[in-house]
Amino acid sequence: MTLQGCSVILRSNPMVIVEKKSTMLKDIRLNSHLLTVPAYIGGKPIEQVQEDYGLTDVIKLGSNENSLGPSPLAVAAFQDALQNAHRYPGIADKHLRQKLATCFNAAGGAPLSDANFMTANGLSDFLRQLAHAFLFDGGESIYCNPTFPLYPIFTKMFGGTPVAVLHRDFRYNLAAMGDAITERTRVMFICNPNNPTGTTVTRAEVETLMARVPPSIVVVFDESYYDFVDDPAYSNALDYVRAGQDNVIVLRSFSKVYGLANLRIGYAIATAPMIEYLQHAQIVFNTGDPVLRAAMAALDDTAHVQRVRRLVQTEREYLYRGFEELGLTCVPSQANFILLTQLPRDVKTLDRELLTRGIIVRPMGGFGMPDAIRVTIGTHPENERLLNALKEIL
Ligand SMILES: Cc1ncc(COP(=O)(O)O)c(C=O)c1O
To answer: Which residues pair with 164 in a beta bridge?
Structure first.
């Protein structure tokens, strides 16, 4: 089969970068959807930069990880569960879902049970499941660029059609998303806070949009960075699930505030019938007991979560001040990263200069913003090192 050029339908945004993929397989019938999937360009690993630049002291501020690491309780739980590594996963998944229900119910509101939760091998895995479940036969997904690239990637993987609308002042443009609804729309992705801009949508904006969304369209609130938000106007998507609205799914990750990115665990919250349907797209034993038990222990370590949250919120302000002193433009963030835009130097050169100094950040070309970089908020010494390096380079 020959290569198909890959394109995303852009109703109003010319910025998304997509890549062609080729294959040398000539005799085997291939899935044409897979050949049109844009490549995901991930952040550079520390080891690679150490090798490439002959460095030992490298810091990574490129993938929105937790610079304080996991809770020691999570590490101990993981190690303990390894003793049963020879067994297939047991009841830990149910226990984690029960624990999540207890944690959420402590905050009040209509009660949730384990039947409202579904764990996944990272939210990335869950986004794939969602696309499998709803974006067949060319169904459309709507999202707002720039945002997390896996939404169009998974949409295309399963034969769906991604529809991107353009942001407004780096914020998710829910009004434009509402305008983009057609009879082919199946899913709307709302990344809140949005990666890579760090901006949020408000409760009022979500309410206005939801009043326009028919019950046949699934609205996915990707809240991977929920724990870093301090804006009181932030929307509460969970209210829709608590009210029994089947077409709303809320996603939360253990990769960020809980520092378990390498263990690959996240979860979805939805009504019980929705969760039951989504299980049809789930791979059996997709998460192992060591990971599930580490996640449970991470939930228990509320002091660690508070430490991480405080660090991010304090260091956000420190970085804003530092960027301002350097004359750099950044987007105020509600997440554990900050987007720098309109950089005064070519981003490729700037990135290389930072890498030679052992600092990994994320150039935003793959997110459709060639003149921007995204910086993860690190520990204070890491942030200081970044600001000093930028001062030297600029
Ligand atoms: C907005 C958003 N959604 C989902 C994910 C995937 O998270 P996970 O590590 O749980 O797969 C990320 C990861 O950075 C993200 O930024």
So the answer is: 10, 143
Rounded average pLDDT over 221-232: 97
Q: How far apart are CA 153 and CA 323, in angstroms?
A: 33
**CA pair distance 48, 221, nearest whole angstrom:** 33
How far apart are the CA of 327 and the centre of ligand 1, in A? Answer: 30
Token pair of 315 as six digits: 């260091």
pLDDT at site 5:
32
Question: Tens digits of per-residue pLDDT, 67-102?
Answer: 999 999 999 999 999 999 999 999 999 999 999 999
Q: Would you place residue 391 in the very low, low, confident or very high pLDDT band (cuts 50, 70, 90)? A: very high
User: How many CB atoms are located within 10 Å of the residue 310 CB?
Assistant: 10
Nearest to 159 by CA among 136, 127, 131: 136
How far, in Å, CA of 18 to CA of 34, rounded? 14
Ligand 1: atom nearest CA of 255 is 9
> What does residue 180 show for φ and ψ, rounded to 5 degrees?
-85, -5
Q: Give, in order, the Cα–Cα distances in Å from 264 to each of 125, 255, 290.
A: 9, 7, 11
Are 319 and 313 in contact by the 8 Å Cβ rule? The answer is: no
Q: Contact, 253 vs 260, CB < 8 A?
A: no
**Residue-level length of the chain:** 394
CB of 194 closer than 6 angstroms to any ligand 1 atom: no
The closest-lying atom of ligand 1 relative to the alpha carbon of residue 194 is 1
Q: How many CB atoms lie within 10 A of CB 198?
A: 25
Omega within 30 of 0 (cis) for the link into 146: yes
Residue reference for tokens 């890579």: 196
Q: Please give the angle made by the CA atoms of 109, 114 and 115, to the nearest 5 degrees.
A: 95
Distance CA 145, CA 155 (A): 15
Closest atom of ligand 1 to 265 CA is 10
DSSP 164-198: EEE-BTTB--HHHHHHT--TTEEEEEEESSPTTT-
Domains and CATH numbers, the chain: 46-69+303-393 (3.90.1150.10), 73-300 (3.40.640.10)
Residue 53 and residue 360: Cα distance in Å, rounded?
12
Please tell me what DSSP assigns to residue 265. -
